[in-house]
Structure formats: C-alpha cells, structure tokens
Design goal:
about 220 residues; alpha/beta; TIM Barrel; eight-stranded parallel beta barrel; two-stranded antiparallel sheet; about 35% helix
Length: about 220
C-alpha cells in the first residue's frame, strides 16, 4: 500500500518501453522524459509520444528541457505531456504563454546559492514548483547537503510554498537521509536507478520501497 504521506516519486530519463512498464507497475507519480540533445538519456518528441502511449494515465508525464523556446513548448504541449521542467534560462515569454504547469530547476552547489530560490518562490506565481538539483544536471551527484546551516534551511520553508522536488544524486542508499533533511514533496531520481543498459527494475523497486517507508 502506498503511504499517502510519503513523498511522491519521479523517475527521470525514461527511454524504453520496458522502463515505462516498470513505472506503471510501481505506481510512481511522475515519469520524466529528457528532451535535451546533449543528454545521454535524450529522446525526441516523436519517441516520447510513443512512450507516453504506454504510460499509465495516472502517472504525470514531465518534459525535461534546457532553455526552451516557445516552439518547443508548443510541441511538448501538443505531444500530450502534463508538466514541463525547465533547466537553464526560463524566459518571460515561456512563463507567460506556457499552458502546462512549470517546474523550474535550480542548480546549486551550496546553501548560499539557494538564496535565488527564495526570491523566485516568493515573487513568481507562475512557477508551480522548484526542482533543487546539483550544480550539473544529470551528474548523478548530490548538491552539498552538509554545507547547509540552520539559516540556509529556512530557504526550503519558502520553497515549500510551491511544490518542492529534491533531485541530484539520489539513490536507494541516501534517499531516506534526503527526505529526513529536506522534507521534499517529490523525490527525483535518474542515475541512481540506472543499470548496465538503461533503468534497472530492481533498483527502481528498491528506491520506491525506501521512499514509501518514509512518512512525512
């Protein structure tokens, strides 16, 4: 049984039909598809549409992009995605015209850098959530958890006025500690559930099990 008080789960970097089936089986809340050509988990919009047809409709599909223009945003909307996640620059035009909920990624390496999150979370009603990630997207490394002081942790209180997604180097061994430290609404994993040929079903299952043991 899913603990309704545990954080929701996003598995990112989906590229294969069998990975979609694993997500359907595990009943995760979000599936992420990377539409950035420099990523090793890159899929075209056409390929993403094929995978979305197999995705359980109860799972929200997230288009992960880097500094997208409106042409790409419209293509994503037409493809049937339910949410967009933006790394890099987020233009005023995209914030104004995008029809889907927006998660903005904030890449940090220490607590001081997170001060920008506070300002944006308080001032921009058009952002639905913030993905707090490591300095380099897709690096498989956590940001500097140990560098956060008590004052720095206050920043995350403001982030929680929106949807707070914890990302960056999560895996089955550290996700419990990440939940304890930051109390996120969503935990986001990609590299941490990779096997030798894409996502590993066993790692996904163990990650999901760890998360759902953690009541908020």
């Amino acid at each position: 049984m899913i603990d309704e008080m545990s954080p929701q789960i996003k598995i990112c970097g989906i590229t294969k039909e069998q990975e979609v089936e694993v997500l359907n089986h595990e009943q995760v809340e979000y599936a992420g598809f990377v539409l950035w050509e420099k990523s090793k988990r890159y899929v075209t919009i056409e390929r993403a549409k094929e995978l979305l047809q197999r995705l359980d409709p109860k799972i929200s599909s997230v288009a992960v992009m880097v500094s997208p223009d409106m042409e790409l945003i419209r293509a994503v909307e037409d493809a049937g995605f339910t949410r967009i996640q933006i790394h890099g620059s987020l233009s005023e035009e995209v914030k104004e015209k995008a029809k889907l909920p927006i998660w903005q990624a904030v890449n940090i390496s220490n607590g001081i850098d997170a001060s920008n999150c506070l300002k944006e979370a308080k001032e921009d009603a058009r952002i639905n959530g913030y993905v707090v990630d490591a300095a380099s997207y897709g690096s498989g490394k956590t940001f500097a958890w140990d560098s956060f002081t008590d004052a720095d942790m206050e920043l995350f209180y403001w982030l929680k006025r929106k949807q707070f997604v914890l990302a960056g180097g999560l895996n089955e061994e550290n996700v419990t500690e990440g939940i304890r430290r930051f109390d996120p609404d969503v935990v986001d994993v990609s590299s941490g559930v990779e096997g030798s040929n894409g996502k590993d079903a066993g790692k996904i299952h163990r990650f999901v099990t760890c998360v759902r043991k953690n009541s908020r």
